[in-house]
């Protein structure tokens, strides 16, 4: 007597054999999710986390009917705002064709973004897949809710905003030093103080897990690049941070969103993603400093310091 499972398999095989080749399911026949529509209004971190949780529910059928396409679209929305888990989950779906069309190229970029935010599983996957090729996919491009990019030359035309007062916890000797030295680097003192407050909270002995040190949280490579011999020396550290800010202002032609993103994540990441990278920490860092300086979008820069970013032309709105 045949077991029920054997009988079911036999019936399924017979039915499969009767189907024409065009009716057989293939990986290429799986749906490909579309990029979500532009967001309306500001998007806050709890909303991003909710998209990811909803995506997980639709991926696994947890309390809702399983819907891989809806899951992928929700992950995509969260990924654009820097949610590393959503980036990883979407990459996993794309790599394994979990109800959506397989796309290893897009998955590699998503694994890379999650790995760059410290997600170990993503780093392991990226090692197996290799370096991502081509431009990042739509799910990693700057969200529509981000401020419109400055046009070439627009930074010089924007009227300067009145400088805010120094942060309440800024030590007076540091404020005096920054006020005295920042003009030598063609920097507004309030910008330097806002970066310092966010980076180290004015602790000259601060050190991050990535070995960034001092008031301006210089990493060893940046310190060497700007000839800082002793990162723990407050004067050298501040001057090194100022030199880097001056260089970034020239490289990104005064666009403070890009300058601050690069100070946090590196100019290479800003170039690669054609804007603020899809890292939750970097996005929050930029928002926090821009708020601290009163919403200032641009800063004067010296074009003789360095040539502008080679990708600015592809990112900026034509003038």
Gist of the model:
This protein has 319 residues and is mainly alpha-helical.
Molecular structure report:
The N and C termini lie far apart (79 Å). Helix content is 50%, strand content 0%. The chain is built from 14 helices and no strands.
Radius of gyration of CA atoms, rounded to a whole number: 24 Å
The largest pleated sheet is described as: none
Secondary-structure-based class equals mainly alpha
The outline comes out as: elongated
The average pLDDT value, as a whole number, equals: 87
Q: Quick one: how many beta strands?
A: 0
Order of helices and strands: HHHHHHHHHHHHHH
Count of DSSP-assigned helices: 14
Percent in strands: under 5%
Give the N-to-C terminal Cα separation.
79 Å
Element layout with pairings:
Elements: H1 4-18, H2 45-60, H3 68-80, H4 84-96, H5 104-116, H6 120-129, H7 172-181, H8 189-200, H9 220-225, H10 234-251, H11 256-265, H12 267-273, H13 280-292, H14 312-315
Helix pairs in contact: 2-3, 3-4, 4-5, 5-6, 7-8, 8-13, 10-11, 11-12, 11-13
